[in-house]
Amino acid sequence: MLSVDLFSPEGLFGCTHRSLRVTSVYLLRTNPPPYRSILPARILSFLSYPHLVLGDFNLHYLLADPCRSLSEREITIDTHYFDAAFEATYDLLYTPEVYTRFPFDTVSPSSVLDLAFANSTLSPLVSLWDTPLPSTGSDHVPCVITLKPPTVMLPPLLRTGPSWT
Fold first, then answer.
1. What's this model's pTM, rounded to 2 decimal places?
2. What is the DSSP-derived secondary structure letter of residue 150?
3. CATH of the domain at 104
4. How far apart are CA 86 and CA 92, in angstroms?
5. Is 75 helix (H, G, I), strand (E, B) or coil?
6. Is residue 155 part of a domain?
7. How many separate domains does the chain show?
8. Where does the pLDDT of residue 130 fall: very low under 50, low under 70, confident under 90, or very high at 90 and above?
9. Read out DSSP for 133-144?
């Protein structure tokens, strides 16, 4: 897990918040409980400023992957992350029926493992989550998250011509 904080003295995205946190997550499966390398509360905590959490979660969730049949164990383990997101007011950014992982074998189904969550402060500023880029050569497809452009008030242009008075 890696977090980067961006700061602006003028406020970000045309709002009063002066910081944005982006957290990148890569969850590993572990055998003894809790069965994932990072607990949900550590990733998806309540913040008053905009927060984007994204990465390869290695989770399956029925709403993000409705065509996949999930085991009872997957549902039990993975639901905790989505419950934590809901409790901390995060929205799942996802376009239905867009898969982010394509296995090389023909037996495994495609799945949605690369997820992004935006908290309630950032969520209204997200205009698009999509996978328009070609494969990078791995089994994952890059995701693009587009935020609404900032509203910037530019200073008035200064007159540089001669002063006739």
1. 0.76
2. P
3. 3.60.10.10
4. 9
5. helix
6. no
7. 1
8. confident
9. SPP-SSSBPPPE
